[in-house]
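Hi C.,

You asked whether I'd gotten around to modeling the 251-residue construct. I have! Everything is below, sequence then structure, no commentary in between.
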Amino acid sequence: MAEKIVGVIPSRWGSTRFPGKSLSLLCGKPMIRWVYERVSMARSLSAVLVATDDERIRVAVESFGGKVAMTGARHPSGTDRVAEAVSDIKASVVINIQGDEPMIDPAVIDRLARAMVSDRKWDMATAAAPLSSREDLEDPSVVKVVCGENGRALYFSRSPIPYDRDGNIPFADLPYLRHLGIYAYRRRFLARLVARRPCRLEEIERLEQLRALHMDGRIKVIEVNECGVGVDTPADVPRVEKLMRRARLAV
């Protein structure tokens, strides 16, 4: 790929449910290091940055040779932090990667990059995986997405979409997709996105990707098989460590 594509991992200390999550140890290494090393395996990226406002995170990342972009402390979202981190970097595509997924698949990053490079009509690209249970379907913390026939996102919601009005279609036959929190942005569109105020839909659902749709942004959704593994609370750490060992990512 000739275009310059930068991967950015926003990382802050003050997580409500897990303060200092980025530096929590997983199988003996800080989580941010696991994420950074997995992201660096993506073949499409010209550079990988951790975007943070915290000196402790900066020191930790630089200690293992990672690159850091220091940002302001009052960003309302990770997207705003990413936008600041790349403000002085020449890149045509920016990929925002969550800092709490130590098992992130580099191939997903490459597929997002490929979607943006191969078809310039897309302003953004993101990923989704099939929903596997009704429990997840009803869970408002699990974001759902519906797409058009070319993979263009039509809407994101915390509610079950599409809604089976008659209730007579088997669950396995319904096109339920779980949205995954990874985004590729056309650089110019990212600048436009963070310059706009949240729209009413975003305020209602608390989903910033609805701002992009409100702006008539064209979002490509790639479908993947796995939804990934995130660390949200301290209780998730032993569960994720077990999965990492099972996948032979750690000993």
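If it helps when you're writing up: The first helix runs from residue 31 to 39.

Thanks,
B.
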